[in-house]
Amino acid sequence: MATQTTAVRGRVTFVQVAIALQTLAIFFQAVTAGLVLSSSHGEVLHSAGARVMYGASMLYVLAAILAWRPGGGAPRPILYASGFLVLASVQVVLGIAHIPSLHVPLGVLMFGLSVLALGQVLSTGLSHRSGTR
Questions:
Q1: What is the reported pTM?
Q2: 10-22: average pLDDT
Q3: Among 20, 67, 68, 74, which residue's beta carbon has the most beta carbons within 10 A?
Q4: Phi then psi for 114, rounded to 5 degrees?
């Protein structure tokens, strides 16, 4: 027998936290990318931020799997999270290879996609809480 899980009013879900952390980590990467050009500490911060961003991407995959499995919902969010992890992997490789002509635009794309995913999850959570949708 499948059990249906729903968001409880006023509660923040694991998926929301994971995507918010991922978005914040990518924003931190944008800030530290500017510091790389102007400060000796920028490279250290950007490198540490890359590890956090990659970990946040893995956390997003885990959160998507855990949100799907108990509720029997659609597996599409797992596909999105996995795709984002692939983009994060490519981003890390491009950063290590020092290819800014691809690294920077991909970072901008990843930030935009992460903000869109966060907005979607937050709006879906709000519509479930208010009883609409």
A1: 0.82
A2: 90
A3: 67
A4: -70, -40
